[in-house]
Design a protein that fits this description.
InterPro entries: PDDEXK_AddAB-type (IPR038726). With about 600 residues, this protein is α+β, with helices and mostly antiparallel strands. It has 2 domains: about 280 residues, no CATH class; about 220 residues, Lambda Exonuclease, Chain A (Alpha-Beta Complex), CATH 3.90.320. The protein is built from 15 helices and 23 strands. The protein has a 5-stranded mixed beta sheet. Strands 4-7-8-11-12 form a 5-stranded mixed beta sheet, sandwiched between helices. Strands 14-17-18-19-20 form a 5-stranded mixed beta sheet, sandwiched between helices. Helix 8 crosses helix 15 and helix 10 crosses helix 11. It is globular, with a radius of gyration of 26 Å.
């Protein structure tokens, strides 16, 4: 049924019967687009409308550089610094200096982990040897070809009885197992060595091993210094096959069928992007009159990082590991409050006093599932002030409630996929209301719509999304709920108001303009360097910021470096000052790397 569906799709051309699933594709969740995964697996299907793909004018996949450098070390005997330098110098696309710093760190961390693994296996009489050829499981017939692959590094014992795959993680190991672990183990147990191109040939030319394995291992290696590798699978091939057939194969089969579409970050690479009816297309949304360097994704978080420092934005965009350091009070509080509100509003009914028991109660209700007792004690005063302004309490009938959804819109004029993360969407008397929620010890942002939007640019983007009909006809309102320990207040902006709309357009265009054409992403040192999450990879010398908890000054505004709270603002907040405050104090919805 799934095959027929894709073979007859009017927006696609090519062969729908070639399916290549990478093991990592099995870890997707219900929040991801199922059709994107099905089409990603169908490597011989392409959009029917031809479109010349524009590639980024810089390296976007740092892990690929790590792999090539490690090949030079393990197979050619090169020194790490020499291997990294050669890989970067010979790369087809320019490599940001900060990426180069991380690549060398990652290689050294991997080799440190490899020594630990070798020492462990040596005590068992096993010597792991790197293997050049990856493995693939493929099954073909006259009707179709199915392939299962794994991306990482391959090893085996000299006698062929032990096969090991090492998964590369950008910064840390995962706390729980994933379906892909068993899929990778199956590729190690049943896969044959690929001598052809694993990602272009169909089928791939393979060769057999001389000996069958008796032991299969999958080990996760975090590319961070002094982090011990984690053994995910260590079992016999028979047990690996059994678990794969029982638990994972049904998931893989489901991937090929597809299912519910969920517009989001995947849309930027999706084969159905040009013809998908679920992805809104709004030419001119960002107010830009050229397509920039290539197709890419932008969010308010990206814009804020860029305002603070273009290098920071770039290094976050390519998912280099971020250091959070000591989380400030406002970050912990903000995360806890947002998690509680998402859980509460997902029920579809107003929040009530009974939902917020005393902090010393044995049963903390909703909070027990989303935060620690200490976090609840800190968040509860803010949540209590939320009750009188809970968006589900009306006035008027409230319908179509959606807590923490992902909203994606494509601007073809700018060739940019815009992604937003509203705290809450709902309809009141049938009209859309888009709410953002914040906690602070300060008072409500004040001033003209333009001044408020500079402090909270999510509101400006929300106005544009509503005004351009992304949520349907009929317009709507944008709300900002600010919770303090003693009071919560709500500001509202009508997206149909000409002054509000004009201020929103100016704010968003100002945020994306420089980013859209930048190819260098030069560092912009300042007092914000001290708390920059990617500062350790930045080759620029840090500014000399205050130490400890001394406030930092940004454009005449004093900001607490630990919490992000604005302590004194004798002048209106500039975009950079607001961005520094926000990046210090707000949880980042895009913080997790993809690998």
């Amino acid at each position: 049924m799934g095959t027929d569906r894709w073979a007859a799709h009017p927006g696609l051309r090519g062969n729908s019967e070639v399916m290549r699933i990478s093991a990592s594709l099995l870890d997707r969740t219900e929040r991801d687009c199922a059709d994107f995964a099905a089409l990603k697996a169908r490597t011989a299907l392409w959009p029917r409308a031809f479109e010349r793909r524009r590639y980024a004018p810089w390296e976007t996949f740092p892990l690929g550089l790590v792999q090539r450098a490690l090949d030079a070390v393990e197979f050619d005997g090169a020194e790490v610094d020499e291997a990294v330098a050669d890989v970067i110098a010979g790369n087809r696309s320019p490599v940001h200096p900060g990426v180069g710093v991380w690549v060398e760190h990652a290689c050294r961390a991997f080799l440190q982990a490899a020594e630990w693994i070798a020492d462990e296996l040596e005590s068992e009489g096993v010597e792991p040897v790197p293997e050049r050829l990856p493995r693939v499981v493929q099954s073909g017939s006259a009707a179709e070809l199915r392939m299962l692959t794994a991306w990482g590094r391959w090893y085996g014992s000299r006698d062929g009885t032990v096969r090991e795959f090492r998964r590369l993680r950008m910064s840390r190991t995962r706390p729980v197992a994933a379906p892909s672990d068993e899929a990778i183990a199956f590729v190690a147990a049943a896969g044959r060595r690929a001598v052809g191109d694993l990602y272009r040939d169909a089928p791939v030319d393979v060769v057999d091993d001389e000996d069958a394995p008796t032991r299969v291992r999958v080990v996760e290696v975090a590319l961070a210094a002094d982090v011990r590798p984690r053994v995910l699978v260590d079992d016999s091939p028979d047990q690996v096959r059994r678990r794969y057939l029982e638990r994972v194969r049904p998931l893989a089969q489901g991937i090929t069928v597809g299912g519910e579409r969920r517009p989001g970050p995947d849309c930027v690479e999706c084969k159905l992007q040009a013809s998908c009816e679920d992805l809104p297309r709004v030419p001119g949304l960002l107010g830009l009159d050229d397509p920039g360097t290539h197709r890419r994704t932008w969010s308010v978080t990206t814009g804020r990082h860029y305002l603070v420092c273009p290098a920071r934005a770039h290094l976050r965009d390519v998912y280099l590991p971020a250091e959070t350091g000591v989380e400030g009070t406002s970050v912990r509080r903000g995360v806890a409050v947002h998690q509680w509100l998402e859980a509460a509003h997902s029920r579809g009914r107003p929040c009530a006093p009974a939902d917020l028991p005393d902090a010393d109660a044995d049963d903390l209700g909703l909070a027990a599932g989303v935060m620690t007792p200490e976090e609840y004690r800190e968040a509860r005063p803010y949540l209590l002030t939320h009750l009188p302004v809970c968006p589900l309490a009306g006035p008027g009938p409230v319908t179509d409630v959606s807590a923490e959804p992902t909203v994606a819109v494509f601007d073809p004029a700018a060739d940019v996929l815009v992604v937003a993360h509203p705290d809450l969407l709902r309809r009141v008397d049938g009209r859309l209301v888009y709410r953002e929620q914040k906690t602070t010890v300060r008072e409500l942002p004040a001033g003209t719509p333009g001044e408020v939007f500079e402090q909270v640019p999510q509101l400006a983007l929300a106005v544009l999304l509503i005004a351009h009909g992304v949520f349907g006809a009929g317009g709507g309102m944008v709300e900002l709920e600010v919770m303090t320990p003693s009071l919560a207040q709500v500001m509202a902006f009508d997206a149909a108001d000409a002054k509000v709309l004009d201020a929103a357009r100016r704010q968003i265009t100002r945020m994306v303009h420089g980013w859209h054409r930048d190819t260098e992403f030069a560092p912009s040192p300042g007092p914000w360097c001290e708390r920059c999450p990617v500062a350790r990879w930045c080759p620029a010398p840090r500014a000399s910021p205050p130490t400890g908890t001394e406030p930092i000054e940004v454009d005449g505004v004093l900001i607490d470096p630990l919490t992000g709270e604005v302590l004194d603002a004798p002048v209106p907040l500039t975009g950079r000052a607001a961005a520094v405050s926000a990046t210090l104090g707000d949880p980042d919805p895009e913080a997790d790397p993809p690998f």
